[in-house]
Specification:
CATH superfamily: Ribonuclease Z/Hydroxyacylglutathione hydrolase-like
Radius of gyration: 17 Å
Distance between the termini: 40 Å
Largest sheet: 7 strands, mixed
CATH architecture: 4-Layer Sandwich
Number of strands: 12
Mean pLDDT: 90
Strand content: 15-25%
Helix content: 10-25%
Number of domains: 1
Structural class: alpha/beta
Low-confidence stretches: 1-12, 279-285
Number of helices: 8
Length: about 280
C-alpha cells in the first residue's frame, strides 16, 4: 500500500494530522477522531466526527482549541457509528460544549441508552485485538436530549458541501461522509486502512486497505455492498476510523480490489457472524 497523505502537525502538541485544508485528525491509541472546519474559525465554526476513547476528551478539547481558537466549541458532533472506541468521550464532550449529536436513525438507540450492540466474534480476523474483543464495551451510551437524527436529505449539519452515505454492515446505522467538490471521504469503519484485528498492525499503523473490524461486524452481505458503494465514489482522499489517511490512484485501485475480492479478503470463515451462521441482527439492552 502506498500514497499516504502527508502527515502534518499544524499546532504543536495537538497531534493533529492534515487530510485536506479544513479536515484534520488525531489518532487516539487505536482510533481516529476527525475535525472538520477552517483553522482559526472560532466558536461553532467546526464539527467533530466521532469521539474517541473514554480518556480522549481532554486531548480532543486541547486539539480543537489550538486548531479553531480558545474556547471554540463545535456546531455539532457527528457519529459514523456508536461503537465504544468512537463514543468513549461523547457524553462528556457533548455536555461540555452543549453540542447536538447526530447519527443515523438506526444508530440512535445505541447513543440514547436503549440498546447494546451484539456480542463480538473473537474468532474473526486472527489477531490479538480480535481475541480481546469480548472485553470491549458494547454500550449503550446516553446523550439524552442532545441526540439528533441525521437529515433524511443526506445533508450534514455544520458541514456544507458534505453528504452522509448509509453504509451498513459494521453496524446497522453506520454512515460514511463524502464531499463531492474534492472527493474527500470519511469512511468510518466501513473499511479501514490497517488490519485492525492485529495488535502489531494497530501499533505500527501498517498501511493496508482492509474490511471493517471483523470482530464487531455482524452483517457481511451489507458490509460488502457498503464497500462497493464507497469504491464507486472514486475518492481522492480517505480517512477511516482506524489507520492512516491515504490518497491517490494507488489507494483507489486498492479500494476497488477490496470491493472485488471482499469475500476472500474480509469475510471471516468462522464464528457467530460467518456466512451461514444463524444470528439475530439486532441489539438488546
Amino acid at each position: 500500500m502506498h500514497d499516504a497523505v502527508t502527515v502534518n502537525a499544524p499546532t504543536r502538541g495537538s497531534g493533529m494530522r492534515l487530510v485536506a485544508g479544513d479536515l484534520a485528525y488525531q489518532r487516539h491509541l487505536l482510533v481516529n477522531v476527525i475535525f472538520c472546519g477552517p483553522p482559526g474559525g472560532g466558536d461553532r465554526s467546526w464539527v467533530l466526527i466521532d469521539a474517541g476513547l473514554f480518556f480522549s476528551a481532554r486531548r480532543i478539547v486541547r486539539g480543537a482549541e489550538r486548531r479553531f481558537g480558545p474556547g471554540a466549541r463545535p456546531a455539532a458532533i457527528v457519529l459514523t457509528h456508536g461503537h465504544f472506541d468512537h463514543v468513549g468521550a461523547l457524553r462528556r464532550l457533548a455536555e461540555r460544549w452543549d453540542a447536538p449529536v447526530y447519527a443515523h436513525q438506526l444508530e440512535l438507540p445505541h447513543i440514547t441508552g436503549e440498546a447494546r450492540y451484539l456480542p463480538p466474534n473473537p474468532r474473526a480476523g486472527g489477531g490479538l485485538m480480535a481475541l480481546l474483543s469480548p472485553f470491549y464495551p458494547r454500550g449503550p451510551v446516553d446523550v439524552g436530549h442532545r441526540a439528533r437524527m441525521l437529515p433524511a436529505d443526506g445533508s450534514i449539519p455544520g458541514m456544507p458541501g458534505w453528504r452522509w452515505v448509509h453504509t451498513p454492515g459494521h453496524t446497522a446505522g453506520h454512515v460514511a461522509l463524502f464531499r463531492e467538490a474534492d472527493r474527500v471521504l470519511v469512511a468510518g469503519d466501513a473499511f479501514v486502512t490497517t488490519k485492525q484485528e492485529s495488535f502489531l498492525a494497530v501499533m505500527t499503523q501498517r498501511r493496508e486497505l482492509h474490511g471493517p473490524p471483523a470482530y464487531f461486524t455482524p452483517d457481511w452481505r451489507s458490509a460488502r455492498q457498503s464497500v462497493e458503494t464507497l469504491a464507486e465514489l472514486e475518492p481522492a482522499r480517505v480517512i477511516s476510523g482506524h489507520g492512516r489517511a491515504l490518497h491517490g490512484a494507488g489507494m483507489r485501485e486498492e479500494l476497488h480490489r477490496l470491493a472485488r475480492d471482499f469475500g476472500r479478503r474480509a469475510v471471516p470463515r468462522r464464528g457467530r457472524y460467518a456466512p451461514g451462521a444463524r444470528v439475530q441482527l439486532g441489539g438488546s439492552a
